[in-house]
Amino acid sequence: MQKLALVKLGGSVITFKDKALTANTGAIDGISGALVQLDMPVIVVHGGGSFGHHWSVQYDMHTKPAPYDPHGVAVVHESMIALNQIIVNSMIKAGANPYAVAPCMFTTGHKAIAAKVRQLYEMAKANNVIPVTFGDVVHMGGRKYSILSGDALMSIIAKVLKPSRVIFATNVDGIYRDMKTRELVQELKSARRNGDPVEFSKTAGADVTGGMQRKVREAFKIASMGMDVVLVNGLYPERIVQAAHGEVQTGTVVVKKGRK
Ligand code: IPE
């Protein structure tokens, strides 16, 4: 395990999911201010929200590799670059050193190019550069493309780097045991995943990669590789800072396999 915070900024935090192509700049600036405080190597992954998902839905593009409309490929990718630029510029303004990295630079298909992933860590460790990558449409060979979600990227990166902190920031406080009472599950043991009465919030707006359920699935996957995974509300950026320091007051920890 290496000292590294791997942080996913969900589309529900960084965009207004029900307003096409609209970034939540207030939330992004808040998170940039939090990330710059972290005294450890950081890698950021962000989702698509009302940017990537908006066009993916319009062009009927999904995670399944298929010969999607190439114009759809162009506009989905462009929208993700546009959102990435907003985030990167916000981080620069906050005094951080972000470095935009499209996922095709360190993956092939949906698999890691391990040496390139390790290079991201090198950059983060050597001089406080924060690689900022994102869910995107990626080439799968021939005419086929696929949506590679930011959540899937979290597993891909975590598997290679084994970060000491894996954090998913969404627009909810964590996983609710009961949606009505908003009772939070503080710790979720991976072994009990099928038995645990967990409800999933219906995310507003369109989502081609599976919303909260997908996040939890990736969180379990990462926990089964031996890392605790924390889900926090990114609209309270200080919770990201706390989670990176190993303190979770309001949030859910998906406990790594093997920890009692
Ligand atoms: C989606 O990434 C990327 C595209 C649709 C191109 P995510 O699935 O990780 O996005 P959010 O966080 O759920 O919005």
Automatic annotation (TrEMBL):
The record marks 17 as: Transition state stabilizer. It catalyses: isopentenyl phosphate + ATP = isopentenyl diphosphate + ADP. The keyword Ribosomal protein does not apply. One of its GO terms (molecular function) is ATP binding. Its EC number is 2.7.4.26. Residues 4-233 form the Aspartate/glutamate/uridylate kinase domain. Substrate binds at residues 48, 53, 150. One of its GO terms (biological process) is terpenoid biosynthetic process. CDD domains: AAK_FomA-like. Belongs to the isopentenyl phosphate kinase family. This is Isopentenyl phosphate kinase. It comes from Candidatus Nitrososphaera evergladensis SR1.
